[in-house]
Amino acid sequence: MTNFFNGTATAMITPFAKNGEVDFDSFGKMIEYQIANGTDALVILGTTGEPATMSEQEKEEVMRFSADKIAGRAKIVFGSGSNCTAHAVEASKKAQDFGADGLLAVTPYYNKCTQNGIYEYYKAISDAVSIPIICYNVPPRTGVNILPATMERLAELKNIAGIKEACGNMEQICETARRIRGKCDLYSGDDNLNLPILAIGGAGLISVASNIIPKETKMLYNFVQAGDLRSANEIQDRMLPVIDAMFMEVNPIPAKAAAEMIGLGGGVPRAPLTELEPQHKEEMRKILSAFGLKVIA
């Protein structure tokens, strides 16, 4: 299936207060910031949202809060992947019940399944739910790579809506794009590659940096859609220092620090992740200020 969403999606931070609890006031502020700046979809409980360190009750509370707060103003995409197919199926069914418009399901990680195992994993999820599913390919984190031929097979399933591609290999991404064109959609999952992926026909992008700069991220998308690649290159060049800063340490550590600095209340990461190192905090403040953002913390 195609056209689940076209445009920009933000891989949302889950803000945690110093006492360790989810900070719903800050989370609500973040949601409003995204919607006000034209973000088309919010990806909640994806990698950037730290679901691996959240209890099932916390995840349910976050899904319930998100659905109530967003209230149809943007697409809601809940993360539901696992390295256990049965767990992924149950998480996907639960996400659908809590009001997801679609799912982002990362490949099974750590287990290192075969290409056929990847196919059967997504088929099981597809058979269990009726809402669109975006496959998430991020081999540097998972140790598993969805090859183009496998994605071509997956595109034939009834509700596979696309792939969030973060393999980092443009040759592979181009081949995947060729094989799935007209069957399901390609989404950039790597902020550094947003422009080239959009240029080869990507339907949109799922961004970490747009937690901080959603307006400019949407401008990039709009310029490409209008065929104005000169302006797209200019805005991408302007965004690159912020994009690079989001990965000065492992995601989402820098994004949470940046959100805190500009008053959104990113909070702290959960262990085993740690707060941004002091020298990186100072560097982050300089980068955000140079971009034109008001740094208040």
Ordered list of secondary-structure elements with their pairings:
Layout: E1 7-11, H1 24-36, E2 41-44, H2 56-70, E3 75-79, H3 85-97, E4 102-106, H4 115-128, E5 133-137, H5 139-142, H6 148-154, E6 160-165, H7 170-180, E7 185-188, H8 194-199, E8 204-207, H9 214-225, H10 229-245, H11 253-261, H12 278-291
Parallel strand pairs: 1-2, 1-8, 2-3, 3-4, 4-5, 5-6, 6-7, 7-8
Keywords:
297 residues; alpha/beta; TIM Barrel; 12 helices; Schiff_base-form_aldolases_AS; cytoplasm; Aldolase_TIM
Largest sheet: 8 strands, parallel, barrel
Secondary-structure element sequence? Answer: EHEHEHEHEHHEHEHEHHHH
Going across the biggest sheet, name each strand in turn: 1-2-3-4-5-6-7-8
Counting H and I runs of at least 4 residues, what is the number of helices?
12
Secondary structure class reads alpha/beta
Bin the strand percentage: 5-15%
The radius of gyration computed from the alpha-carbon positions, rounded to a whole number of angstroms, is 18 Å
CATH level-two architecture: Alpha-Beta Barrel
Span between N and C termini?
44 Å
The low-pLDDT segments are none
CATH topology: TIM Barrel
CATH domain class name: Alpha Beta
Counted beta strands: 8
Classify the helix fraction into a percent range.
Answer: 40-55%
For this structure, what is the CATH homologous superfamily? Answer: Aldolase class I
How many domains, as an integer? 1
Mean pLDDT, to the nearest integer, reads 97
